[in-house]
Amino acid sequence: xxxxxxxxxxxxxxxxxxxxxxxxxxxxxxxxxxxxxxxxxxxxxxxxxxxxxxxxxxxxxxxxxxxxxxxxxxxxxxxxxxxxxxxxxxxxxxxxxxxxxxxxxxxxxxxxxxxxxxxxxxxxxxxxxxxxxxxx
Length: 136
Hints:
Shape: globular
CATH architecture: 2-Layer Sandwich
Number of domains: 1
CATH class: Alpha Beta
Radius of gyration: 14 Å
Strand order of the largest sheet: 3-2-1-4-5
Structural class: alpha+beta
Largest sheet: 5 strands, antiparallel
């Protein structure tokens, strides 16, 4: 069943995890018209999890999320072009993620211009991406 965003990933996962974490160092840039530009870095290594540049992301949850196969796949391989994506409610906003997670090099761009981008941002990357309604 497709959600409001037009994709079928399901509800955000609740994480309660603290190390040891997969090694990760990623720089996240959030650009949404009408809001301040946000850039922050997530670092995960062993039992250490940190987020520098924002207080809107929980470091332990971000690092636990970065260890998930679906998250690593989306960040390293980009959007799955076989997904059907709704074009009904396009939103503005872009997310860029650069860095490394384990052995995977990350350089991806996520746009809220279609339902799949919105779903990736709000659900799959929910512990990594600042929520649009939390921007100021």
